[in-house]
Specification:
This protein is an alpha+beta fold and about 100 residues long. It has one domain. Helix content is about 35%, strand content about 25%. The N and C termini lie far apart (about 50 Å).
Length: about 100
C-alpha cells in the first residue's frame, strides 16, 4: 500500500515538473497562451495576433464579439476548429491598474 502511494506521488511530481519546466512555469504558460488581437477578418474566420505577427484561424462564430485590442486565448480542440475565448476586452485593458 505504501509502495503504491509513493509511486503515485513520484509520478505526479514528475508530471508537474515536466509541465512547469516545459513552459517555464504556470505564469509563463498563461502568458504564452494569451494573444492581443490587432485585426479581425470575420469572412476568413481569422485574427492577426500582435505577439506572433501571424493570422490565427478560429471558429467564425467566436469572432463575432472580438475587436482590435482584445486579449484572447485560443483553445485548440482535436478534430475541430480552434475556439477563441476573450480574456479581457480592449477597454478593460486600457483602464486596468496593472500598468
Amino acid at each position: 500500500m505504501i509502495k503504491r502511494i509513493s509511486i503515485g506521488v513520484t509520478v505526479l511530481s514528475l508530471a508537474s515538473v515536466a509541465v512547469a519546466g516545459a513552459a517555464g512555469g504556470l505564469t509563463d504558460l498563461m502568458q504564452s497562451a494569451r494573444m492581443t488581437v490587432v485585426k479581425v477578418d470575420s469572412a476568413r474566420g481569422a485574427f492577426l495576433c500582435a505577439e506572433h505577427g501571424k493570422w490565427t484561424t478560429v471558429s467564425r462564430a467566436d469572432l463575432a464579439g472580438v475587436a482590435s485590442g482584445d486579449i484572447v486565448r485560443v483553445d485548440r480542440l482535436p478534430g475541430g476548429a480552434p475556439r477563441i475565448a476573450v480574456v479581457r476586452i480592449a477597454s478593460d485593458e486600457l483602464t486596468s491598474p496593472e500598468r
